[in-house]
Amino acid sequence: MGWRKTGIFRAPDEVLVMTCDVCECDIGFEDGRRPHTHFRVSLHPNAGSIDAQNPDVVLCSKECLRAFAARTAGPERAPIR
């Protein structure tokens, strides 16, 4: 390995990393590199349009979705038989 001398200095790029809002584990980069499957939960009514909903939370798994739903205030709904 050696140093490559190109003479061009590039400024560092800012990269945002998505993390789960419940367990704070790494989901992937927001620019589309290395994305993992995840859930985006938004509350309604939402200020965004149909195709551009602003998610309130980003979750990495069904377990985190259940944990988030268990601590979220909202209407109690009994299962329908």
For the largest sheet, list the strands in their spatial order.
Answer: 1-2
% residues in beta strands: 15-25%
- Count of alpha and pi helical runs: 1
Helix-strand string: EEEEH
Quick one: how many beta strands? 4
Mean pLDDT: 78
| Form type | elongated
**Low-pLDDT residue intervals, each spanning 5 or more residues:** none
Please state the CA-atom Rg, rounded to the nearest Å.
19 Å
- Taking the alpha carbons of the first and last residues, their distance comes to 68 Å
- Main sheet attributes: strand count, strand direction, barrel closure: 2 strands, antiparallel
- Percent of residues in helices comes to 10-25%
Determine the structural class based on helices, strands and strand pairing.
alpha+beta
Task: Give the topology.
Blueprint lengths: L16 E3 L6 E4 L9 E3 L15 E3 L2 H10 L10
Antiparallel strand pairs: 1-2, 3-4
